[in-house]
Amino acid sequence: MSDTAARPVTETFAVRERKQSELVFRRFLRHRAAVTSLLLFVLVVLFAYVGPLLWKYSYTDITDDLSRSPSLTHPFGTDLIGHDTMAQVMRGTQQSLKIALAIALIGTVLGALWGAIAGLYRGRLDFLMMRIVDIVLTLPTIAVAAAVAAQGVGGSQWWSIAVILGALTWPYVSRVVRGVVLSLREQEFIEAARALGAGNPRIILRHLLPNALGAIIVVATLTIATGILGEAALSFLGVGVQAPDTSLGLLVSINRDAVNTRPWLFYFPGLFIILIALTINFVGDGLRDAFDPKQTRVRQ
Amino acid sequence: MTVLLEVDDLTVGFPTEDGLVQAVRGVSYQVSRGDSVGIVGESGSGKSVTSLAVMGLLPRNARVSGSVRFLGEELLGRSDEQMSKVRGSKIAMIFQDPLTSLNPVYTVGSQIAEAVRAHKDVTRQQAMKRAVDLLDVVGIPNPSLRVNSYPHEMSGGMRQRVVIAIAMANDPELIIADEPTTALDVTVQAQVLEALEAARKETGAALMLITHDLGVIAGHTDRVNVMYAGKLVETGTVDEIFYGPRMPYTLGLLGSLPRIDESGRPRLTPITGSPPSLLNLPAGCPFRPRCPKARDLCAEVEPELTPTADRRHLAACHFHSELASATAEEVFS
Amino acid sequence: MNPIISVRGLVKHFPVRSRGILRRQIGDVHAVCDVDFDIYPHETLGLVGESGCGKTTTGRLLLNLVPATAGTINFQGRDIVPLSRAQMRPLRREMQIVFQDPYASLDPRMTVHEVIAEPLRIHGLYRRETVRDLLTTVGLDASHGNRYAHEFSGGQRQRIGVARALALRPKVLVLDEPVSALDVSIQAGVVNLLEDLQDELGLSYLFISHDLSVVRHIADRVAVMYLGRIVEIAPVEELFQRAAHPYTQALISAIPVPDPRKERSRRRIILAGDVPSPVDPPSGCRFRTRCPKFAGQLSEDERTKCAEEVPALTDHGEGHQTACHYAEALALI
């Protein structure tokens, strides 16, 4: 072998380049609202999942304190039969978050695959798939979900709500992913993979989806916010989570008559819904800006 | 000879999160009336930033120091408005992408005519007639039809020639062409370079030609400035640079070029490694890590441009005298 | 010796569709038209031409990455044009491609090890050691495997692209402008690497490039394309010393030589106008609209022949074929 081929080329890098993840992280940190929101959201998650371990009451406990306003013993007060509202909000947040995450997961996986396949194959298949997306998008989500849930599919388990709402939110994800894939498929590395003999499944799973990951993470985040609100709406309508279990939506629904007499029962769970939806939206905004390469470049 | 452009100790830095990128580090050169000066270097050498600094077109966050004088007047620190009076009248610019200098909503004829009327008190008809003549000079076929075309209706090569025609209409003292043919095919490049020569002949303007293509430099310039890592590393007449380079980088660059005029297959002599990062440049000569001739001194002291055999042939190498009549193969393999 | 690849009558038309929902087909881009060539074992065939001449499409067609409209591509005694993607898969081990853009052709989400391992995994040949060996073969450090492509310079990335193409031990490599995106000092190293690999592994190359200097350096034979057709094909020395097609002559004369004295005395053939649209190519000889011979030397009868009769590639001896009715050898360098 001749000298050039054999000698390792130890070149110093012309300009220090950062990993994309590092760049994204830096840009995200610069988005103050997003960082604050992320912190708040983490606190909410800790409250919901670690809180019950530390708090003296469980959401099923019935105390002797009836209809108390917030105090040191019951920071969020109690309801008519003596449930500690803070314990209920903890459980409610847990359930709502769980459902919202499941909605986001189902919607994102389905939507990402759907969008990637449509974008990669193009042509008639793409046309057909995207018309289906259009149709699903025109459905009034909550009305359809309520109608389906009212049939008692899945026996009103928490996951049945997630499946129903997930099945209605994926079109948003698929539109975004298809757009990204349409531009990715023209890149040379996709053609290179083809030249190596890679089939479509490999191209989708190994190349297209990992490269669309930024966009997918962003829409997934926003889907969580939609999920929280969707669950709340369904539970409010009485077709979501059923007692004795609880969720934020259900708490608001049960206590809506108490809004004037015992406002703490209504406002605390309501506050948590708003808090989660808002913080996640801000985090999503921050992520979108961080992944967008058209943002102010960190390096030249 | 009158000195048109005088660049003195020009330094340009761009602040980034990692620190200051030293794009240009103390560059000095002159362009006299009628000169044709080439600036050659690879990507990241600072050749384009230098010309942008001269024309006052750097982004706002750039840190510029030194001095750029045109006919004795300082250009650095002028407002945009003051600069635009100089740009386009005394100094004409030609960029790699001609679309940036053409207005998409006017016909090329009216854009040339406008430039003509800015300098001469003539009627619209006369200006339009002059536009047709100018298009003919830059070699555009059917100029009387083409004056009515819009920029998007023309090919890249034709647009570039329209830009040259506008430059001529302004009757400039200096034409700065920054990679004017890089995006073009060779036969179109030949057309554009021919148009550029025609423009020089007609206006008598000096030319500053910035390119990475040593072939274009060889055919169209009298003096050559070689840039590396933000500095001038060698300057001399075109013959001195091509036939007797005194900086190892220049020698290596010439040795790594495949030649269309050489038969057989002489092995190319590449320069190992790549250009240094312009952030936190290490002490000493920036070419040292890639230079087979490097010694201890090179790691400590950055060489200044010093005269070689000829007073006006300068090289930034401590050992430039050793390079007299050396070949790239001897040095690099 | 038998050719390893024989291409006969290769045609590729891309449909041009109208805008709107109907998207009716309103024409065809004649990207590649009736192209014939052979590649022999251990040979480099250079394919040159300007942008839009169909050279890149020809490379893609050769690998069946885009389906041919007509023609045959005979590889190892078998026509690959009608093969499906699945049927092509085993043949991918024999034919590979290196792309022009070392940035876009490597998946940014993969480590270098994964990039090079991908072909091996697809064909069930993956071994960690193989990847490490490939890295060393192309002159990179085997320990660099767990880095991402963007941590490397352009030249290093192109070496990674070469390693990936070599992973399956192919017999034929299509090199699509492999060094055009690189700085000259880096380019030479990759050219040398490609030459060494060819000697060592007995590869055949289709070297696609617009840069005639590199082609002269690396190719054994050269085919020149214009507007979808091969206009001249000849052994490299023959072509550069006795170019007979007016287009080849213009192309060679337009290449700037990095030698000021030669450059000053060279005769340049400047072509008029632009390349016609491949949607509606000229009848007869496609070059006639820009041909200096057609415009300046031919009689009326001779011109009629150019306009009516497509010139076929005819052999002038020494394997030198020219598609011009009035071909005449010319020395230009």
UniProtKB/TrEMBL annotation, chain A:
> Which InterPro entries does the record match to this protein?
BP-dependent_transpt_permease, MetI-like, MetI-like_sf, OppC_N
Location(s) in or outside the cell: Cell membrane
Q: Residue ranges of the ABC transmembrane type-1 domain?
A: 93-284
Predominant localisation class: membrane
Alphabetical list of SUPFAM superfamilies matching this protein: MetI-like
Q: Where are the bilayer-spanning segments?
A: 33-55, 99-120, 132-152, 158-177, 212-244, 264-284
- GO cellular component term of the entry, any: plasma membrane
Quote the Pfam families the UniProt record gives.
Answer: BPD_transp_1 (PF00528), OppC_N (PF12911)
How does this chain sit within the bilayer?
Multi-pass membrane protein
Single GO biological process annotation from the record: transmembrane transport
Listed A to Z, the keywords are: Cell membrane, Membrane, Transmembrane, Transmembrane helix, Transport
Q: Which family does it belong to?
A: Belongs to the binding-protein-dependent transport system permease family.
Q: What's this protein's name?
A: ABC transporter permease
What species is this protein from?
Paractinoplanes ferrugineus
Automatic annotation (TrEMBL), chain B:
Q: Which residues form the signal peptide?
A: none
- One of this protein's GO BP terms? peptide transport
Q: Which SUPFAM superfamilies match?
A: P-loop containing nucleoside triphosphate hydrolases
| Protein name listed in UniProt | ABC transporter domain-containing protein
Recorded GO MF terms = ATP binding; ATP hydrolysis activity
Q: Which residues form the ABC transporter domain?
A: 5-254
The UniProt entry, under Pfam families, shows: ABC_tran (PF00005), oligo_HPY (PF08352)
Q: The organism sits in which domain of life?
A: Bacteria
**What does the UniProt entry say about where the protein is found?**
Cell membrane
Q: Name the CDD domains for this protein.
A: ABC_NikE_OppD_transporters (cd03257)
- Principal location listed in the UniProt entry: membrane
Q: How does it sit in the membrane?
A: Peripheral membrane protein
Supply one GO CC term from the record: plasma membrane
| Keyword NADP part of the UniProt annotation | no
What protein family does this chain belong to? Belongs to the ABC transporter superfamily.
Keyword terms of this UniProt record: ATP-binding, Cell membrane, Membrane, Nucleotide-binding, Transport
TrEMBL record, chain C:
Q: What's a Gene Ontology MF term here? A: ATP binding
Please report a single Pfam family linked to this protein: ABC_tran
The UniProt entry's GO biological process terms, in alphabetical order, are:
peptide transport; transmembrane transport
What Gene3D superfamilies does this protein map onto?
A: P-loop containing nucleotide triphosphate hydrolases
Give the domain of life.
Answer: Bacteria
Q: Which PROSITE patterns match?
A: ABC_TRANSPORTER_1, ABC_TRANSPORTER_2
Q: Which UniProt keywords apply?
A: ATP-binding, Nucleotide-binding, Transport
Q: Residues in domain ABC transporter?
A: 16-252
Q: According to its UniProt record, which protein family does this protein belong to?
A: Belongs to the ABC transporter superfamily.
Q: What is this protein called?
A: ABC transporter ATP-binding protein
User: Where does this protein come from, organism-wise?
Assistant: Paractinoplanes ferrugineus
